[in-house]
Amino acid sequence: MSRPRQPPLVTGISPKEGTAWTKVTIRGENLGTGPTDLIGLSICGHNCMLTAEWMSASKIVCRVGPAKDDKGEIIVTTKSGGLGTSTVSFKLLKPERIGILEQSAVWVDEMNYDMRRDRNKGLSPFSLGPGNPLGIELDKGNVPQKDLGVIFPGMSGDFTSEKFSATWYLIENHAGTSFEHLKAAANNLKKQATKKNEGSLGYVKGGLSTFFEAQDALSAIHQKLESDGTEKVAGSMTQRLENILNRASDTADTLFQEVLGRKDKADSTRNALNVLQRFKFLFNLPLNIERNIQKGDYDVVINDYEKAKSLFGNTEVAVFKKVYAEVETRIEALRRLLLDKLLQTPSTLHDQKRYIRYLSDLHAPGDPAWQCIDAQHKWILQLMQNCRDEFIMGVGALDLEGDTRPSALGRIGHSASLKRGGSLRSQRPSTWRFETPQPVQFVEKLSDVVIGQLPNFWKLWISYVNGSLFSETGEKSGHVEKSKKNARQRQNDFKKMIEELTNRLVKLIRGALLPTTLPRAELSVYGGWEDKTELTGAWLTQIIHTVRACHEALSALEIPNDLLQVIQDLLLELRVHCLMMTLLLTTEDVKRLAEKEDWVVDNEGTTGLPFKFEQCMVQMLQSLREPLEIKPGEINEQRLLIILSNCQYLERHTFLNLADHFEKHGFTGTEKITRVSVDSVRELDRKLFEAYIERRADPIAGSLEPGIYAGYFDWRDCQTPGGVRNYLKEALVNVIAVHAEVFTVSRDLVPRVLSRIVEAVADEMCRLMQCVSSFSKNGALQARLELCALTDAVATYLNPDSNASFKLALDSLPQLHSGADKKLLEELLNKFKSSMQLQLTCFQASNLQPVKR
After folding, report:
1. CB neighbours of 752 closer than 8 A, spacing ≥ 6?
2. Which InterPro entries does the protein's record reference (predicted)?
3. What whole-number distance in Å separates Cα of residue 193 and Cα of residue 588?
């Protein structure tokens, strides 16, 4: 026999007070095993069973009825537990009576207000349907509403709708409910239908007395009228009653019109306040934008603008459109402000990137990044020209010394001095600005301008090219790709800007130091230094040092060499000019030494003239040290090749032609002149050729050893060869690059150059192979494969020395005795030649036959 259940116990109710028909939630213990187990529920003595909705054994939802008691207990009765008890009570509030002309601060809840058109019919409290009509726990499915609308066109899952579809409702709310629970839900529906019918009948029964009283009154009036016989006579009681009722109706309409008008006005005011509260972000946005702009919080402005644009950008509401138009006006003013700040000079690179990002996020028209680049280019050009104009007017020297900040050239010199053991610029004495010639000061200040501004200009362009100027918002909106596309289209324009800057730098320095190298039309723009003192070799040496430091700083930015070629040409001419001026001035100083002879003999029997002569020569040699020194990057390999080609032509054609002309014109004894000239050209050719070979062969040969042993490769422990390794392919590609460089200048130089390059590579490979202590079988096969592949590839340019080196390298390897190893070697060689056939074409002569092994 099952154990009897405990009686229901109510431990809580929410809310704890309210007027009649207030919806309450009852909580407790043992409140029933299901909807059918609940047989009684009373609050303050009123039966609330008709509106009760059982949710679980600890929760019931119902509405409080119009009880007589102001305060009472909540009693629950179940079949399984019987009559229950309560530890809490509910206080029933009496509704405040409000006259038809009295205002109330409480509005009727429109959600529960009777909106039916036919208001003459009574409204039962039970007509308010429960939120869960089946009385079981909801189990929402994952079927989207859009798909349900397609499956059930024109229907609805709302059980209060006239087009209610039960199938839709079950799929939406009970997709995972079990069949047993659905059977229980069907029983709940039957019970609720029965209760509704009983409730409606009870509602009618409760109002029968009123109906009967009204029927009795109408019958008495009818009998009175019939007895008087005045029912249809003008001015009768019926007519008077009708008139009275009509006037009462008109009066009521008038009274309620005012009340309803005030309510409509209050509703409008309330709706307006709700709109203001709900959309206060938009209405306050113009003022917030103005405040944040004044504070410089541009990020906040941009975020608020993006939010407003997404919410109200396409609105059709008139008031929203008006406010949003005001927002757009403020944003347009912000765009103009940011663009002005962006184009303002001087400006830091950080600020430029920040303003460009802001403008891109605000979808500013045009290309702000390119506008900034163009403005910076014009500003740097103007700075350089102003530097020259100030010195021509005689005011520039004070400006350079008056700036207490370290110059850009000084900062470059500090880092560069670590390598050279000294500073680019020594500490200036107090009389520096008065002792240093103005052209020297001008070159230093001009270099400071270029080194101080051009790096940021170049970095801004690099950021523009790689898209790092934009935020994540810009990346999502496609600004980065648009920027990269614009950069690709404007590469030539930017190249012209860099060329213009470097050309302006070179022309300004030429105008100050080498005016004869400028066209006459440009002397008025870049010249004007004619009345300045001629510089000595020491000052020219300092200028060369300054220009070299400027060139090194620009080269460190990885600016292409062709854009800096004009500076290299300037350096070459400055070095030649310094050399000529030093020799010329030294010659004049030596000539004037006789005037300084005092004819005083010292203990050694000599005057001071020999010492003065020695001192003069030492100073000259010190001045020549900087001009004669060749810095990295100042040698143009292509020009070396051109000079070599010219030397060959001089030796083979020019001198022979000149000798013939001498003989035709009757000059004899020219053989010695021709021989000496040819010897001089040959010596020059030899030195230049060795310099070029050294610059091209050393990097290729030096890359072999690191490439061979990359990845801790060991000849004694390696796998079966699968092909030629990448280091050898890279070396061949570098040789091909040299071949292309030489071929573009002179085809006749190709065999001469390539033979020496191959000789250097062969010598290095021979050294590396002979240094290996021992080879494994696979290691020997790998080494032989790579030596044979290299030998076959450059066979056209092998000379006796390179052949001997390759032979020594192969002799140092163990011999192959296995036929399988020889076959594998042949297959891998053919695979290598096939894969690099296109690259190796330049090494093959037209009549070269393939090498057979």
Report:
1. 689
2. EXOC2/Sec5, EXOC2/Sec5_N_dom, Ig-like_fold, Ig_E-set, IPT_dom
3. 130
> How far is it, in rounded angstroms, from Cα 704 to Cα 315?
70
Q: What is the secondary structure of 173-231 as a DSSP string? A: HBTT--HHHHHHHHHHHHHHHHHHHHHHHHHHHHTHHHHHHHHHHHHHHHHHHHHHT-T
Main-chain dihedrals φ then ψ at residue 590, nearest 5 degrees: -65, -40
| Residues 6 or more apart whose Cβ sits within 8 Å of residue 598 | 607, 608
Instruction: Please measure the distance between the N-terminal and C-terminal CA atoms of the chain and give it in whole angstroms.
Output: 105
Region 9-92: CATH code: 2.60.40.10
Give the C-alpha separation, 160 to 115, whole Å: 13
User: Is the torsion defined by CA of 155, 158, 161, 164 positive or negative?
Assistant: positive
Contacts of 432 (CB under 8 A, 6+ apart): 401
- How long a stretch of residues is the chain? 853
Question: What is the rounded distance in angstroms from the CA atom of residue 341 to the CA atom of residue 103?
Answer: 60
Who contacts 26 (Cβ-Cβ below 8 Å, separation ≥6)? 10, 12, 13, 41, 59, 60, 61, 62, 74, 76
The string of pLDDT tens digits covering residues 581-602 is: 888 888 888 888 877 777 777 7
Type of residue found at 514: L
What does the radius of gyration of the chain's CA atoms come to, in whole angstroms?
52
Q: What is the DSSP letter of 651?
A: I
Long-range contacts of 351-358 (CB under 8 A, 24+ apart): 352/376, 352/460, 353/460, 353/463, 353/469, 356/469, 356/470, 357/469, 357/470, 357/471, 357/474, 358/298, 358/302
Burial class (CB in 10 A: 0-12, 13-18, 19+), 723: middle
For residue 229, give every residue at least 6 positions away whose Cβ sits within 8 Å of its Cβ, in sequence order, or none: none
Q: Helix (H) and strand (E) counts for the chain? A: 30, 11
Average pLDDT over residues 270-288: 80
Chain centroid to Cα 60, Å, comes to 58
Q: Are the CB atoms for 784 and 825 separated by under 8 Å?
A: yes
Q: pLDDT at position 418, please?
A: 32
Q: Where exactly are the structural domains of the chain?
A: 9-92, 135-178, 275-343, 699-842
**Which distant-in-sequence residues (6+ apart) come within 8 Å of 750 by Cβ?**
739, 742, 743
Q: Position of tokens 């959309």?
A: 279
Task: Give kind and range of the element (H or E) at residue 389.
Answer: helix 368-393
